[in-house]
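Per reviewer request, we include the raw input and output of the structure prediction for the construct analysed in the revised manuscript.
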Amino acid sequence: MKKILLLLFVFSLSVVSASAQFEEGKKYVGASLSGLDMNYSGNGKFSLGVEGKAGYFFSDNLMLLGEAGYDHQGNRDNGDAVHVGVGARYYITQNGIFLGANCKLMHFDHNYNDFMPGVEVGYAFFINHSVTIEPSLYYQQSFKNHSDFSTIGFKVGFGIYL
């Protein structure tokens, strides 16, 4: 019984410390890796993406994000892509689950540009007081070529809450 009570106490402390990281005025720096055949698009080719993010909590549980990244598209006719974007995340109080929305401007080799809004749901798993591992599911909608470039997938990232 003592072990169960101790475990519940430690769990409650981790929940309290996690929610303290989502306060107004905090800053965020992160990076993520996507692709590795953990996504699906109509093109169906191998892809690998990396992106960096920086954010600011303008209100409790609400973060504004800026991001930039690179996507290797395998044998896709339009080649590799770079993107810049803005987004926001809402952290559900005291548990680390977040909901996100973003808009990216993708620039593919061969002068093909696409505006891609997206959504994601993920979890910020704290490995210490300020560093997280952040797995998430995402969907990016292509306006120029929905059948080939819209993507649903899984990405894994890490974040530092300052």
